[in-house]
Amino acid sequence: MSILGLKKKQPKTFKVKVITMDAEMEFSCEVKWKGKDLFDLVCRTVGLRETWFFGLRYTVKDTYAWLKQEKRVLDQEVPKDSPITFHFLAKFFPEKVEEELVQEITQHLFFLQVKKQILDEEIFCSPEASVLLASYAVQAKYGDYDPNFHKPGFLAQDELLPKRVLMQYQMTADMWEEKITAWYAEHRGIARDEAEMEYLKIAQDLEMYGVSYFAITQNKRDTDLLLGVDAQGLHIYNPNSKLNPNKSFPWSGIRNISYSEKEFTIKPLDKKKEVFKFYSSQLRVNKLILQLCIGNHDLFMRRRKVDSIEVQQMKAQAKEEKARKKMERQILAREKQMREEAERAKEDMERRLFQLQDEARLANDALLRSEETADLLAEKAQIAEEEAKLLAHKAAEAEQDRQRLEVTAMKTKEEKRLMEQKMREAEQLAVKLVEQSERRLKEADHLKQDLTEAKDAERRAKQKLLEITKTTYPLIAAYSAPPAPPAPPEAADTAYDSAPSRLDFKDSDMKRLSMEIERERLEYMEKSKHLQDQLKELKTEIESLKLEEQQQQQGGVYSLRNEARGYVQEPAYAPHSNRNSAYMSQMGYFEEV
């Protein structure tokens, strides 16, 4: 066995892992492959045709470098790991994204890279612009805003704002989400590629967009500065300010850039202007600066020339593709609108169906209630008809009762007239009796007065007779003369009146006169009592007749009302005893008189 046979065979391939902004890929590469072979493989895999913006970047110690396409991959300072890791990123940025980025995949890769740089604060962005950019990012990811689907909190897992912006204001995540959603709701109808393009159009106006920064020192003064390389040219910044450059050298104003180890020389196109020199201490960084300057300058000059056939074809295809997608989106939008209208119509029809079902159910219930009501009304009509017949019958009876009451009332009026006539006669009789009674009372008073005067005269006569007797007794005894003959009554009265000495008045006559007066008084009292009894009976009879008439009138009205209601009652008649009692109560007037 020879010594050469003992040596290990060198592998013919090596492993490579390429990380894009949205995917990771692994390839098995041949040892002899150059950087262009690997780059073309990645571009074909991704489907990218605008390859001049991108490159494969790898990490070298404390900096990074871009894979050179003209050298073999393994001959460069790539990591010795297996697999070797590369990042497929945009190396150069366009001046106007809307005009230069043709393919949708190119736009998408730029969108993802710029978005990451803004969130990692490699590109400064104000809070207002950050919220607007976040709204376009949400539109690109979720499509049109739907409040029924996008509930509060649906952005909780998405990183949309730089941490610096979140720390700058004392706002909760819900408050930031509300602000982003308010802008997001206004982007309705924007497709994903259009939302990403709007994002890039806003981002390209940011000061730090597409700028690669490198630490440098100025000639002689050893002052620390920053060099910025972008699609517009070269810019010199203070270390503490990456937004506003102190000095700028546009590509159109640079005649030449020379590099000698650590020294860079920028010669303006205008020979009168001063040549600017700066230094960079790291050789790898110097090579990277030169590489970026050459690439950006080439693209700057390329933009100002007529597009190549390949670019023209790509733009034409992209235009056709955009037109086709736009038409597809329009068709999809119409179909979506039609589907939404159909769904709304379906919902309306279902709602209308439910409404009609409810109305039908209510109508059925109303029909059942109407039938029940009709049965009840028919039954009530039958009852009402029977009641009408009964009322007609009772009305006829009431009419008969009314006629009978009218006859009774006429009789009662006649009886009343007769009783009133009797009452007037009784009143006249009572007046006469009262007058006679007063006259008799006056006569009795005169008689009593006469009796009293007679008694007084008798007493005086007796007294005087006694005095005369005492005086004349001795004379009588002396002469013994016989008594004189008695005189007639008229003469006695005359004598009594004219001469008291001749009065002869006995006690028996006085008693007889008193008895006659007493007898006449008793007779008068009996007649008066008899007359009062007659007046009481007449009064009772009159009151009874009046009460009977009132009851008949009230009974007639009551019976007529009740007959209309179906409740006819027979009129009540007061018995004769009540008639007498009413008659006696009305005669109380004559008792008072």
Structural notes for this entry:
With 593 residues, this protein is α+β, with helices and mostly antiparallel strands. The chain is 61% helix and 12% strand. It contains 14 helices and 12 strands. The protein has helices at 3-6, 35-46, 97-100, 104-119, 127-142, 163-168, 173-184, 192-203, 283-303, 309-479, 489-498, 507-565, 576-586, 588-592, and strands at residues 13-19, 24-30, 54-60, 63-66, 84-90, 212-218, 224-229, 233-237, 247-250, 254-260, 263-268, 276-279. Strands 9-8-7-6-12-11-10 form a 7-stranded antiparallel beta sheet, covered by helices on one side. Strands 2-1-5-3-4 form a 5-stranded mixed beta sheet, sandwiched between helices. Helix 4 (104-119) packs across helix 8, helix 5 packs antiparallel against helix 8 (192-203) and helix 10 packs antiparallel against helix 12. Residues 1-7, 475-505 and 563-593 have low confidence and may be disordered. It is a peripheral membrane protein. Residues 14-304 form the FERM domain.
